[in-house]
Structures are given as C-alpha cells and as structure tokens.
Amino acid sequence: MSNFIFATRWLQVPLYLGLILAQCVYVFHFWVELTDLIGAAMGNEAALQHILDAVSTVGAARPTKLNEATIMLVVLGLIDVVMISNLLIMVIVGGYETFVSRMNLSDHPDQPEWLSHVNASVLKVKLAMAIIGISSIHLLKTFINAANYDSKTLMAQTGIHIAFLFSALAIAFCDRIMTDTQNMSRNQQH
C-alpha cells in the first residue's frame, strides 16, 4: 500500500506537461506581440492596429499612433510574459524535482543555481517573489495608463499588490522561523 501511494506522485507528470504546453502558448504570444511591435515601428498598419488594440483600455480614448507610452506598455507586456514564463519554469522544474523525482542535474553546466537546494519552502518563497514581480509590472502598466482608469481601480490594484507583498513577507518570515528552529535542533543534537 505504501509503495502504491508513493507511486501516485507520478500522476503530477501530466500537470507539468500541461504547464509546458501553456509555456509554449506564452512563447507564441510573445513572438506575435514582438513581431507586431517591430512591424508597427516599421510602418505596418495592421501591426499598428493590433498593438493599439492590445494597449487600449475599455471605455478609454484609444491611442491613434505608436508613441512612447504605447511602446512602453507593449514592452511591459513582453516583460510580463517573460516573468510568467520564469514562474512556469520554477513551478515545472522545482515542483517535479521536489514532489515527483530527482532530475540528477548536478553535473549539468546549465543547472539553475536554485535547483541544488530546492524544497517546498524555497519554492514557495521564490514563487511569492515572482508573483510580486509580475504584480509590479501590472501595476506599472496601470500607472502609465492611469488616465484611463478610475481611482477605485487604481486603489484596488495597489491594495492587491500590497497584499502580495505582505503575503511574501509572511511566507519568508515563516520559512526563516522554520529554518532557525531546524538549525537549533541540529545544534542541540550535536
């Protein structure tokens, strides 16, 4: 029975494969947006319209040309895609390594530094930091485009971001307490 229960960890593999497919969608989205940005900068009208549609806020005045604010919003969107992709990699690789099976990458020259000491606590803190980064990008995009949002939306997004910050601090603090407790227990045993 114990071996059967332990073997059920392999049921997570399709979930990680699904996240890999989701990352493929993000890669495709990134290239579409980047291609449209370059096309719009080169004067392609269809690419410009797609970019302007992407940065337009519902109910707000739609931009009519590619300007610095529009470029910045598109670039922040690209950065957002990269950060979400990084989050996916952390979940896929870290989750697989922590909960399914060791990857045995210790001799691989491209092994991420964090993977050598990954565990559930480290993964939670790293995920919280990644979520704060993604939230920061979204908040920055909102502030750049603040004229198109009401104050209630601006306050709500700021409040959500602050909640993410406090959550990450709480997770890190709890991890610190657990680490200190484990270290004290080890020191008392020796």
Short description:
The protein is an all-alpha fold.
Please describe what this structure looks like:
The protein is mainly α and 190 residues long. It has one domain (2-103, 115-189). Helices cover 75% and strands 0% of the residues. It has 6 helices and no strands. The radius of gyration is 22 Å and the shape is globular. The mean pLDDT is 85.
Domain count: the total is 1
Strand content: under 5%
Detail the poorly predicted runs.
none
Distance between the termini: 36 Å
Main β-sheet, in a few words?
A: none
**Could you state the order of secondary-structure elements as H and E?**
HHHHHH
> Helical content, roughly?
over 70%
SSE blueprint and pairings:
Layout: H1 2-7, H2 13-41, H3 45-55, H4 68-100, H5 120-144, H6 151-189
What structural keywords apply?
globular, 6 helices, 190 residues, mainly alpha
